[in-house]
Amino acid sequence: MIVTLDAKRRLTLPSGLMPVVPGDRFEVVFDNEEDAVVFRRLPGKEDWLDVLAACPVPMEDLPARKPAPPRRKPL
């Protein structure tokens, strides 16, 4: 199947290609070696514990945050 990019840089997929609904999210990756764009559907609701576990830096290794200085009210 061939799809064409429109003037607003959008691709439109035919409805019979795959079951999707408005609001579905996709990860888009460009493979430079294959000169291909790959779309991967993301799960609807992600568990925040899974996202936290995938974090590349452990929370203990993050620098301590400094408290923001108090803001003065305008006169």
Strand order in the sheet with the most strands: 1-2
* Helix content range: under 10%
Radius of gyration: 21 Å
Biggest β-sheet, characterized? 2 strands, antiparallel
Number of strands: 2
Quaternary state of this entry equals: single chain
* Arithmetic mean of pLDDT: 82
Spans of 5+ residues with little confidence (pLDDT < 50)? Answer: none
Cα separation of the termini: 65 Å
H-E string:
EEH
- Beta percentage is 15-25%
Q: How many individual helices?
A: 1
Structural class estimated from helices and strands:
mainly beta
- Per the principal axes of the C-alpha atoms, what is the gross shape? elongated
Write a structural description.
- With about 80 residues, the protein is mainly beta.
- Helix content is about 10%, strand content about 15%.
- The protein has a domain at about 25-60.
- The chain contains 1 helix and 2 strands.
- It has a two-stranded antiparallel sheet with strand order 1-2.
- The mean pLDDT is about 80.
List keywords for this structure.
single chain; 75 residues; mainly beta; two-stranded antiparallel ribbon
Q: Would you kindly provide a brief summary of this structure?
A:
This protein has 75 residues and is mainly β. Helix content is 8%, strand content 16%.
Topology:
Elements: E1 26-31, E2 36-41, H1 48-53
Antiparallel strand pairs: 1-2
